[in-house]
Design goal:
The complex is a heterodimer.
Chain A (H helix, E strand, L loop, with lengths): L2 H12 L5 H13 L1 H21 L6 H11 L1
Chain B lengths: L4 H11 L2 H12 L2 H17 L10 H16 L18 H7 L5 H7 L2 H9 L3 H12 L4 H8 L3 H25 L14
Helix pairs in contact in B: 2-3, 2-4, 3-4, 4-9, 7-10, 8-10, 9-10
The chains are: A mainly alpha, B mainly alpha.
């Protein structure tokens, strides 16, 4: 695998959407390529940032209880 | 009259996914009251069409599909009203920062406020926002996101790709405006 191949697959690697064979090939490349490894860390960091910024809202307790009353 | 045990069990299982639906509704409507109305209607519809849910399949994706379809029917009127993404071209934030000399690149991410990230997500057109919500925030697989959105997996991937580019461009613009990075060569992350 070369750098363009690796970069093309980084999103799917971060999203855990590659096959096990592709994962092994990509990991092998990352171990020997600091540039791609840095970019992978950045992409993974960005995905975590989006998740943690957006997933802090939970349904209000009163709303949860209201729904439970309506539905069950 | 007491609800049947089967309906109650179904409702209880469905309610385990409430936070996901509420967060999705909140990000789509950008209004807590509208989000609650949307989620309540989605749950009522889910119970009405309980028979169409196939046991053993992904209930969270099924519920999200009901909720987002209601969103499109009710709050947007027509799917044609979805505005398209700005054409940002191939924008890769990592490459941009590296080319401008901002090192280490990940430090820039640490300086971004969560509220700005949320704002950048909410600025995405709904068709692109919802795929980011499913894959990046709720951790859906592409397959489950495709089920929830009623589109092929390839569409999920292309929307996600474009949404992430727009998102990265918005975050870069914010980093520039707030002085986290300078938009010229020899850029450095400010302390």
């Amino acid at each position: 695998m070369d750098c363009p191949d690796c970069k093309e697959k980084l999103d799917r690697y971060v999203d855990r959407e590659l096959s096990s064979t592709e994962v092994l090939e990509l990991q092998l490349h990352l171990e020997g390529c600091p540039d791609c490894s840095d970019q992978y860390e950045f992409q993974a960091h960005l995905k975590r940032l989006v998740k943690h910024s957006c997933d802090c809202d939970s349904a209000p307790a009163a709303f949860r209880e209201k729904l439970r009353q309506i539905l069950t | 009259m007491a609800e049947s045990p089967a309906r109650t069990a179904f409702a209880e299982e469905a309610l385990t996914h409430l936070d996901t639906l509420y967060r999705g509704a909140l990000r789509l409507t950008r209004d807590p009251d509208q989000a609650q109305d949307l989620v309540q209607e989605a749950y009522l519809r889910a119970l009405r069409y309980q028979h169409s849910y196939q046991a053993g399949t992904n209930m969270k994706a099924w519920l999200f599909a009901i909720m987002r379809n209601l969103f499109w029917d009710r709050f947007k009127g027509s799917r044609k009203e979805d505005v398209s993404l700005d054409d940002v071209g191939e924008f890769v934030l990592y490459d941009k920062l590296r080319d401008e000399g901002a090192k280490p690149e990940a430090d820039v991410l640490d300086k971004l406020a969560a509220s700005e990230v949320v704002e950048a997500v909410e600025k995405l057109p709904p068709l692109h926002r919802e795929v980011v919500l499913l894959v990046d925030v709720e951790g859906f697989s592409y397959k489950d996101a495709a089920q929830a959105l009623g589109v092929p997996i390839g569409t999920v991937m292309s929307r996600l790709h474009r949404a992430r580019q727009q998102l990265q461009k918005s975050l870069y613009d914010y980093a520039l405006e707030s002085g986290i990075v300078r938009g010229s060569n020899n850029n450095q992350v400010h302390e």
